[in-house]
């Protein structure tokens, strides 16, 4: 009898298909389960990457402890000792105070606690002042210690309770801002901490995670008390001992004090130490065209639409922006010029020159603007006589040109004009120094302060209540005038 091979092969193929399908389904489910079981990225660790990277790129660290003695420190020099490269606060140790004072800085160190150990880092502490009340104290504390908690019986069993207040946990700005918890290493292990203080912006980064990120101008102290020292702008760094043994090592500081607003004569387009040149004096490297005149629409562009818009914008840029004898030159016929990188907090030098009657500005984080214009332009028609009476002159200057350049002219709630007219006449070079921290901007024109920590309002929000983006591009504004720029230097500040 002839054997029937086909049905056997058919059954075999069905079995193989079922087995393969089951294996594939099992593998897919395993992969999905594996992904589901993977820990989610920690946003506080992610937030810590950028400021630490900026600080390391600046390369301005200065050692505050030489590992052998207490050089550079005053105060309780008997309560602290140097042992094998470690700075030890001994039992009974109190306050060790830096000889130097600091305004804006990043202070980085490692520390190791004993059980229930307590210390603190005083910042902007006046000479002879108390760290927490006369300055601000960042807690150094084993908040898991037995000294700060006990057992309570709720009827259903005992539970551990801490009698620490939220602003007393490690890393908190004592009495002012509570810190996030969960990042302190167990007792006996080394921790690394970075404290950043730039104007009213205070950050505390513990073992890579941001546990405090506060703008003090916007903070109401969590303990309900007045803390006038929140407005301190400089002072000493203090190791605020509380009689417990605490070990420190790797103490170093980056001084971020505001530099002089007017650079001494130097070779054009050569940045000072710590700054990078945004314009190399040779070509348009590092710059791009404006992809959309409305920042909200521009930020919404993605994928192919963004590529196409940017390609068109770059063509316009190359047609109207050029470099001549080390000067970035604009013919007035195209669109604004933009950095090809986004920036958050920074300091920037920029020299600019305009012809008579010109109008321009500098957009910070894609937001208008630091005003540039001719204060002496009465804007009379070509066939009209110049104003004759004071009233005529006032009417001619109704849009504020006569107040000078440098104001945040599109502000509606905050001040929009400079405090003084500091412009040089059209045809001469002017120098801006711009400092941006959070939403607030300070500006010097030709060495004179003209804007002091004024909030830059969000022009792209009709209510002017939404904050500006944390990062975005810097733009040199097109306003139909010829423009000239050089010596554009920028230093990022950690944020």
TrEMBL record:
Which residue positions does the secretion signal occupy?
1-30
Query: What UniProt keywords are attached to this protein's entry?
Result: Signal
Cited InterPro entries: AL/BT2_dom
Sections of the chain in a coiled coil: none
* One Pfam entry name: 3keto-disac_hyd
The Gene Ontology terms for molecular function here are: hydrolase activity
Boundaries of every 3-keto-alpha-glucoside-1,2-lyase/3-keto-2-hydroxy-glucal hydratase domain copy: 61-254, 274-491
| Name listed for the protein in its UniProt record | 3-keto-alpha-glucoside-1,2-lyase/3-keto-2-hydroxy-glucal hydratase domain-containing protein
Species: Neorhodopirellula pilleata
